[in-house]
Every structure is written in C-alpha cells, then in structure tokens.
Write a structure and sequence with these properties.
A hairpin with a 7-residue loop joins strand 1 and strand 2. Helix content is 21%, strand content 41%. It has one helix and six strands.
Amino acid sequence: MCCCLSPFRSPGLVLCWFLLWISLGPDLLHLHRVSAVNLRRFIGCAVREFSFQAKKPGCGGLHITTDACWGRCETWEKPVLDPPFIESYQRVCTYNETRLVSVKLPNCQPNVDPTYTYPVALRCDCGVCLTSTTECITSV
C-alpha cells in the first residue's frame, strides 16, 4: 500500500510528501515560467491594474490603484524611394473608453483645492497615438 494513501499510519509520511513535492515541484515551477513568458510575448492591448502616487502642489500624496491600458501593438516601418523615404504603420496601446474618478488629497493647504481627478480605463485598443489622451513621441 502506498504511504500516501494512509498518511497518519505510515512512518514514511515525510518521505511520501517529499517525493510528492519533488515530483510536482518542477511542473509547478514550469507553469509559473510559462505564464511569465506568455505575458512577455503578449501582442495586443488590455486593461491592467496600475498604482501611482497622486500629487499636486500644496497637498500630501495619496497612493491610488486604478485600471490603465497596457500592451504592445503591431508597428512596422519600411524604406521607400519617395520622400519622406519611409512608410510606417505605428499603433500604440491607448484608451478607447474611460471614466473619470475624483478623490480628495490629504493635508492640503487652505487655499488649495484637494480634488484630484484621474482616468480609469474601461476599454483599451491598439490605435493611432492621440496627444489629447496619450503622451506620444512625435519626432526622434
């Protein structure tokens, strides 16, 4: 009879659990590694939790956790013979739909409005970079 079937009666309980752990350990570690690799290879745009310190002059900071857009989108460039000598297709992971949330910052000076407003991502997509909603690099 296997020691794992009757763990309280068998003197080999420790050995049995050790062997079970050894046999499952590498597989469990491998599964963890696979999910990390998949995240690194993810192409697309998704909503993901994001934390930051909200600050404004005259107030204390506040730790905020919200949803933001995260990902990588298909981008390519190729040389062409006519000016501007390059054809490009550049998409960024950007907000498609948001809602605004307001919080009150702590310890504000009497003449400072404590209201701090930030966007919460509801839906994200790969799209053209719009300077109205995203910090875009327009020239190198």
